[in-house]
Amino acid sequence: MSTINAFGDSVVKGVIYEDDHYRVADESFQKICERAFGIKIENKGRFGSTITRGMSIFEKNLDLIRNSDSKYVILEFGGNDCDFNWKEIAEDPERKHLPFSTIENFSSTYRNIIQEIKAMGKEPVLLSLPPIDSTRYFLHISKGLDPDKIMQWMRQDKQYITNWHERYNIEVFKIAIAEQVPIIDITSIFLEKKNYSRFLCADGIHPNLEGHKLIAKAIENHLKARNIDPEDL
Prior knowledge:
- By secondary structure, this protein is of the alpha/beta class.
- The chain has a single domain, classed as 3-Layer(aba) Sandwich (Rossmann fold).
- Helices cover about 45% and strands about 15% of the residues.
- The chain contains eleven helices and seven strands.
- It has helices at about 10-15, 30-35, 50-60, 60-65, 85-90, 105-120, 135-140, 145-155, 160-180, 190, 210-225, and strands spanning about 5-10, 15-20, 20-25, 40-45, 70-75, 125, 185.
- The strands form two sheets. It has a five-stranded parallel beta sheet with strand order 4-1-5-6-7, sandwiched between helices.
- Strand 2 (about 15-20) and strand 3 form a beta hairpin.
- Helix 6 (about 105-120) runs parallel beside helix 9 (about 160-180).
């Protein structure tokens, strides 16, 4: 049984939001894939992880990657990198606010991780980002804050959240092209649904249990399209 190392944020970790609490799902896409493909995934995903924190976790696990019996390393970042400190925005909406990772830092750090993995003789595989629901996410991040101030900063357009998130998702695809590494598109399988929000948790950003099934299906589709035998993972 091959062991694949995975690094990323709460999507990789399998975190879902239910009853106003976060927890790791028993049936995350990791668990589904492990059963379906006969593999083990050493999951180093962390809730709230940006690419900078991801780099730190990655550097602490170099021996784990080198000694893995699989050539693949899974990476999924961007959902937290594009996020903002909403408390600071609500307190001063007219001041300039930067995301947790600028697009330039996000791209350069991501590419550095990819290049280090290649130097170890391993093959990085990127995951794109699941889409978000701006309305749900706005309600979630504005709890206990002044929503009018946040809307003022967004120039009265909640869609800004989705657009900004998608900018980082597009950057992930650009990184994959530039570094010539595989990317598994887990975005499209959500977007092809007439109401993809039903596959997201109440916070509008984390895939729910049904969403994790979609991610597992997208991974399965990727393997089939490229004629990759699960035994070769």
